[in-house]
Amino acid sequence: MIGVVVPLLLGISGLMYYIYEKTLTEIEEIFDAELVQTAGMIADLSLWGLDNGSNQNTVRIYRHTLAHKYEKHIGFQVWKGDVLVLHSQDAPATPMADRPGYSTPVIDGKKWQVFGLYPVGTPFRIYTGEDNKARNELAEKILRPSLNLLLILLPLLLLIIYFLVKKGLSPLEQLSQQVRQQKATHLVPIRNTKVPEEVTPLVDALNGLLLRLDDAMENERRFTANASHELRTPLSSIRLHSQLALNAPSEEERQKSLQQIVQAVDQSTHLIKQLLVLGRLPAEVHNGDQRVCKVAELCKETLEQLQSLAAEKKVDIQPRGNSAIEVKSNPHLLSIMLRNLLDNAVRYSPEGSVVQCRVEKSGNSAVITVEDEGPGIPESQLSEVRRRFVRLAGQEVEGCGLGLSIVSLAAEQLGIGFELANRQDGTSGLIARLTIPLE
Amino acid sequence: MRLLLAEDDPLLGEGLKTALGREGYTVDWLKDGQQALQALTTEEYVAVILDLGLPNLDGHQILKKARAREVATPVLVLTARDGLCDKVTSLDMGADDYLSKPFEIEELFARIRALIRRSSGRSQPSLRYDDLLIDPATHQVSKKGKPVPLSNKEFSLLLYMLEHQGRPLSRSQLESQLYGWDQEVASNALQVHIHNLRKKLGKKLIKTVRGFGYMVP
Fold first, then answer.
1. Domain co-membership, B89 together with B67
2. Whether ipTM exceeds 0.90
3. Of A233, A391, A398, which has the smallest distance from its Cβ to B101's Cβ?
């Protein structure tokens, strides 16, 4: 509102000042021209009479009875040498000016505009003049009505502007009202059919953002609910087995319960670790460094971390492939993905089987393949297992159902392709494939 | 007293089975929803402990299908989700009680006792038969005011027979209440328990139904 009114007021004031100045100049020019004309007329009409007159020292005063109130503000003098031969009623006794042409002398404390005419070949000096008061009054009288009109119109104009702006902004006010009313727990698209056309793209963009936000919030809510749900089960186990250990009828049973407690604690630790990985993924992708790393080396490092588990399960992990392949990616996330895939492969492999980890170059991509001899995943559930906390039925293998969703999410965020398939070569088993684009 | 435990978490299932076993219950533990429904509709249980998040068929589906097939066994729902909606849905789908994880094992025992008591139409927590007084909560049995020590199996058998007082119970029915699927049962085990109960509580308590089984008249 202020942004509209202040420039407007400044503009109008400037305009008024300009009109005033311009009018004043024009009026002065007319008056100046009049002075010249009057002086000329006096010269034409009167000088010959004055010159031809017998008494050269007679002072004639131009008199009349129909005086006008402005008359004392205008005057003329005709001098012949040092003698004032003709002058208007209220003209001063001394010469009004001392030179021909325009001058602005001060007479009786008032500023006058005087025009002097010295007709060539005569002893006469003719002065016509006006004091500025008359001019200013006149200019004021001419300007006053229009200025007054402006002064009346201005508040009216402001009022109109105020209402127009208010009316124009009311859809925006409604819009902000709706935005203010949004609850973080329940974001709904803004329904506003009355917004001006110019604002529609903003509303659309805002709605898009709200939808995406709501989706993200819903995802987080589900994640938190699932996380707490998943933690309650191992907690129940710990509690239950502790009570069983406390009331165990034999030392053997106490030992068994205590071992179960250790297992349940391990299970929860694993779950919490995975939850943290999952929770930190977006930030890690956002802040993590991208650098050139050798894929085969990453695989090797990951395999070393899994050696003890593999040895325990008597599973042989065989790394293969091109050790020179380099990709530009986030090495930390890549190794998290690899660890989850290899960990799964080892856990689900039967004793004495082989897990293969191959690194190859295929077209413009580096491809990492992890292949096991486990039971595989029913075709119908291949996509489902990527979701959080999904575990397949009838599994004896411990896990929290987060591994594949971590890989899936990380792959998505890093622009890496992630496929799961069952082996088609006669043996059962799962093939997990990461496709990393090369630059 | 045979219970069906449907819980997919190996550690929790193991613990529950052990704890309930020590309470004298025979526990059939299943980890798969489909199998749990199958067992619930074909076998006889005094109560069911049902986890909601089962693979293949979730707890709500099991409840719905079992109740549609007129299975009247009392069901206690055990779940990690504690939303109001979950509780309401469970109860409306035919569950009789609800317990959220993590839970106090004593509370689970008490709730199961209450379920069994209500399903046999009793309001009194303790059972009275002739000069016998049986307290399911403390497992104490007294005859004419004097306590009679009973083994877990004996107590369980006595309680089950008293809950079904006046009905002849077949041998296989009684055996299945005493022993789970995974237990080896000696062919005369039931006879031995019946014999011991008669010895401790009086011959007239349990009547033999020839060629069929036993009953408490």
1. yes
2. no
3. A233
